[in-house]
Structures are given as structure tokens and as C-alpha cells.
């Protein structure tokens, strides 16, 4: 299981490092780390769908143009508004000089952008974070209630397990469509699911991936996707699961509370009443 935070002490093995580093600081809390910095073309943006340019500046003061790919990408870019709405895990392109461009759908408010990177020559991965302001009337959304079920059109995603502070635990997400288990999930970035966890309050970033990978002879393409994760502290977290089915990448969102105590052996799912349609982040990426 890969539990990714930006703390270099827990990531010297790179993006494939195993979790279980209880109490490690999450990533993305700093714009600079280990001599590398995240730089936007502009931190003042307009609302709407638009390209956003950025670069990673290295210890030599120049834009970094060589990265070690992780999960088939040189860089993973995450955008989320400070109220945890509008989550986007987007694909980006880079020119030969090290400037990247991503297309984001932005609503007014304060946003946090994350770059998940492994520069060539550095001994592991890191996550840098930077704020941007999007002009316009800001309508912050309340934090969605804790739930174990996310509904996205015909799809229902059930979350089972408990996130623990300072202790590795298993989270299992089960995908069904119209009440039937989905057993033909498609690989997306070399996995059947990608899970990002953000700590509510400071948006501390955790990036986790399932054990195994498509084509390894042991990992089934659904309906269950298992993750091992460890929260850096007790508190409330937002979980975002990306999965691909029928050639569409969808994102299921959950609000969970990380406990400081070990769950009871008979603890079941955190399932809540059926989704009421107010979940502000459910969406599909084409």
C-alpha cells in the first residue's frame, strides 16, 4: 500500500513507499520544500474553464524539466477550493522549458493547488501546495456530513473501514451500478482507483494508492478497491476516489472523521442514509 504525504522523512523510497508512518506531517502545506518551489503564472484568476500555467522551480533557480514518472505521469496536479468543493485531479502538459499548463473549472473563492512530483536527482516524491484566488461572489458550501455512501448517477460507492490517527488501517471502497457490483473497472493511471485525502482545516494532503495493479494476476478489477492509509492526526478529512468505468473517470467524495482509537473488531461500514443530492462535489471527468 502506498501512503503518500509530502514529509521527506517518510517518502525516501518515493511514491511507492509503504504507509504506516503514524504522526507524519501531511504534504502540500508548503509552497517550497527541499529547495523546490511551486510557482503559478498568476495567483489571481477569473471564474470559468481556463488554462492555468505553473512551474516547479529547482534549487538552481531554474524551472525543473526532468521528472521521474509516478503512475505514468511526471506530475499529478490537484485543485480544490478551500471549502473542499470543486475537487479536480487533472492531466497537464509541459513544454521543454519546464512550464506546465492545466485546464481547470474554477468557481469564485480561495483555492489550493497541489503538485505531486519526483524531480530527477531528488531521493523521493514530495507534494507542494500554493493558494490562488478566483474573483467573483463567493458562496462557500457547508462541509458535507459524514457518510459511507457516495452516489454518482447510476453508481453507488460504499466506504467501509475507519481512518485512524497514527495507525495504518484498511479502507475498502465498493463500486456498484444500478445495484449490481462493477467487476470490470478500467485501469486509470496504472491503478483501479486513486484516493486523495485532505485534512479539513488546513487541507493537509495525503495520496494513497491500492496494493497491486492491473495485470499483476492478483488484483481484481472491482467491485472492491482496498487502500491502506494512516491519518497524521485525529479530525475530519475529505476523501476523493477517482475510478474509471465505461471510459469515463468519476470522482466519489466522502467526509470521514479520523479516530485516535482503534475501532471495535465488529465495526462495520460508515454507511449513512441514501445520498440526498446535496453532495456538492460528485462529478464525472470525461
Give a short synopsis of this structure.
With 286 residues, the chain is mostly beta strands. It contains no helices and 21 strands. The model is unreliable at 1-23 and 267-286 (pLDDT under 50).
Written overview of the protein:
It is a single chain. The chain is mainly β. It is built from no helices and 21 strands. The strands form 4 sheets. The protein has a 6-stranded antiparallel sheet with strand order 1-17-16-19-20-21, with no helix packed on it. A hairpin with a 2-residue loop joins β14 and β15.
Compute the number of helices: 0
According to CATH, what is the class of the largest domain?
Mainly Beta
How many domains would you count in the coordinates? 2
Query: CATH-wise, what's the superfamily of the largest domain?
Result: Immunoglobulins
What is the helix fraction of residues, given as a range? under 10%
List key phrases describing it.
single chain; 286 residues; mainly beta; Immunoglobulin-like; 2 domains; 6-stranded antiparallel sheet; 5-stranded antiparallel sheet; globular
List the helices and strands and how they pair.
Layout: E1 2-4, E2 32-33, E3 36-40, E4 44-45, E5 48-57, E6 75-81, E7 88-90, E8 92-94, E9 99-106, E10 109-117, E11 126-134, E12 149-152, E13 155-160, E14 169-177, E15 180-181, E16 194-199, E17 204-209, E18 224-229, E19 235-245, E20 248-258, E21 283-285
Parallel strand pairs: 4-11
Antiparallel strand pairs: 1-17, 2-3, 3-5, 5-9, 6-7, 6-10, 8-9, 10-11, 12-13, 13-14, 14-15, 14-18, 16-17, 16-19, 19-20, 20-21
